[in-house]
Amino acid sequence: MNLNVSYTWESLTVFARGENLLWWQPYKDYSGVNSDAFGIYGGVMLRI
Predict the structure, then answer these.
(1) Burial class (CB in 10 A: 0-12, 13-18, 19+), 43
(2) What is the value of pTM for the model shown?
(3) Cβ distance 11 to 46 under 8 Å?
(4) Which is nearest to 27 in space by CA: 37, 17, 2, 47?
(5) Which one of 7, 11, 30, 48 is at 20 to 30 Å from 24 when CA atoms are compared?
């Protein structure tokens, strides 16, 4: 369950505000890669 909480350090800030859905979509476009793949990568980096 820790991975879910640390999915993305940036997502945590947005999630607290309740704008994860609105922020997740534009973020996918900005990153240029799948939000799922990027989220897992960011979460692992934060954990390490």
Answers:
(1) buried
(2) 0.15
(3) no
(4) 37
(5) 48
